Amino acid sequence: MEPKLKARTSKVCIVSFYKFIKIDDLFKLQNYLNKICLNYKLLGTILLASEGINGTISGKEKNISKFFNQLEKDNNFKSLEKKISYNTKPAFHRMKVRLKDEIVKMGEKDISPAEIVGEYISPDKWNNIITDPQTILIDIRNFYESAIGTFKGAIKPETESFSQFPSWFEKNINTLNKNKKNIAMFCTGGIRCEKATAYAINKGYKNIFHLKGGILKYLEKVPKTNSLWDGECFVFDERVSVKHSVIPGSFSMCHACRMPITKKDKKKKSYVKGVSCYHCVDKTSIEKKRRYADRQKQMELAAQRGEIHIGKNFK
Fold it and tell me: How confident is the model over 92-117, as a mean pLDDT?
């Protein structure tokens, strides 16, 4: 059953969604999505590739509903996997519809989640599978995501990007899989697990499971009293992290390196707003720090004028 948007008109509605499906005319779809997102005054990011669609958008609840009603007139986009949450302010500063080689980059050919994936486990059944002593539980997210929260007992590959997961899996799974019968994986919204489980099955492994809807759906559906989640969940928008019931978390973001930081981290000498934090202070040049400082100054001046300054993407 598709999730329904609840009446919370005073808040910004945020919806993450994806679907692996063959898309032939990417440019046509890109233009179409740009048009309807503009019409409905939506902000966010939508990625398109020949393998499918992956996005997170935010805006007024009624406009979000209109967007999906219009998109789902195309039967190819029925049954999108959606995660719905709310915030008191926009989760994005602009709208981007981008064309990519993959909607989630793994870099492995011959992997088709539209054809085969692991067995979906609903949030209400997830605790049963991950507490089974015969299950290996793998957090397939990046190191900075798992650092602020994960499921109890999960193995963390500590990868810097999802494209590193296949090599980690090949190197470690046989040792981890000894005398075990199940492999369970999870990620933020479920999309990376679609590819990761497809990859594992393609390599000949069986009894592969993944959390349907990802951590976000688990935090939405499972009461905190019954939860095996420990910490907060990193999200790729202005909220930075969310807690149970998918409410905004306590983390901020270093706008120099995009890493999550705490209030305690902000008190360190390494932290300069918009310029550096303990993650990146020794990794950027003096010239780049100057550029970051100038960007931060322009953002603050724009804020004083009541404008939004989205800055530039610095590498």
Answer: 94
Which residues are designated catalytic? 187
Q: What is the residue extent of each domain of the chain?
A: 12-99, 119-233, 260-304
* CB 302, CB 280: distance < 8 Å: no
Yes or no: say if 48 and 29 are a contact pair by the CB < 8 Å rule: yes
Neighbour tally for 231: CB within 10 Å: 16
The pair of three-digit structure tokens given for residue 170, joined into one six-digit string: 């090949």
Helix (H) or strand (E) holding 172: helix 165-176
Return the SS3 of 131.
coil
Neighbouring residues of 183: CB distance < 8 A, sequence distance ≥ 6: 135, 136, 138, 173, 177, 200, 205, 207, 208, 209
Q: Which CATH architecture has domain 119-233?
A: 3-Layer(aba) Sandwich (3.40)
Q: How far apart are CA 25 and CA 112, in angstroms?
A: 19
DSSP one-letter code for 262: -
Q: How far is CA 185 from the centre of its chain?
A: 15
Q: How far apart are CA 103 and CA 50, in angstroms?
A: 9
Which is nearest to 67 in space by CA: 77, 9, 100? 77
- pLDDT per residue as tens digits for the range 221-241: 999 999 999 999 999 998 999
Distance in angstroms (rounded) separating the CA atoms of residues 35 and 177? 48
CATH of 12-99, one of 3.30.2130.10, 3.30.70.100, 3.20.20.140, 3.30.420.40: 3.30.70.100
pLDDT bin (cut points 50, 70, 90) of residue 72 is very high
Q: Which amino acid is it at 12?
A: V
Cβ-in-10-Å burial (0-12, 13-18, 19+) of 273 comes to middle
Nearest 5°: CA angle at 14, between 112 and 151? 65
